[in-house]
Amino acid sequence: MTHRQRISMIVAMLLVALGLATTGAGAAVAAPPHTQAPAPAAAVPGVPVTGGFTDANGGDGVFAGTFTPTSFADRNGSLVATGTLTGTLTDAAGGTVGTVEQTVTTPAAIAQATCRILDLTLGPLHLDLLGLVVDLNQVHLVLNAVSAPGNLLGNLLCAIAGLLDPIPSAAALAAILNLLLALLGQL
May I ask which residue range the UniProt record assigns to the signal sequence (predicted)? Predict the structure, then answer.
């Protein structure tokens, strides 16, 4: 896998993972609702965000909204996403308590990755072993390792497979993602 392919895969997974790894909703829910600048262009997709809170009567309220990224940055070696969180707070009785539209910054995580370990293609094979004839058609063997929590062998094999690959810094990833956001904004 080339360096460009690896970065492209990381960027794609990061954008998908952003929907799974946004943790800033709790802080946004606790803040008083206020209005900021309009959301960015519709070309940048928003990610659904849900959460919960305790309403004034002690019941379980629900927050439902979207997070639309506007920029990415390197904060102490970690990648963070800044964007607009827009949503509605609903109390346990189903009544709307308020709305939220504010800028939040949240950590961005990379989702599980799959590493190609082996891609082997054997052509047709004909063996004649003292009268025992073995004919084998084309064989295509693909081994992939899945890197995720709890996948010890997959994590180990992905780490070994990527030992010689340069690892982009959070700042480099932020620059690439900001470029992608700018391109999406021009659509």
Answer: 1-27
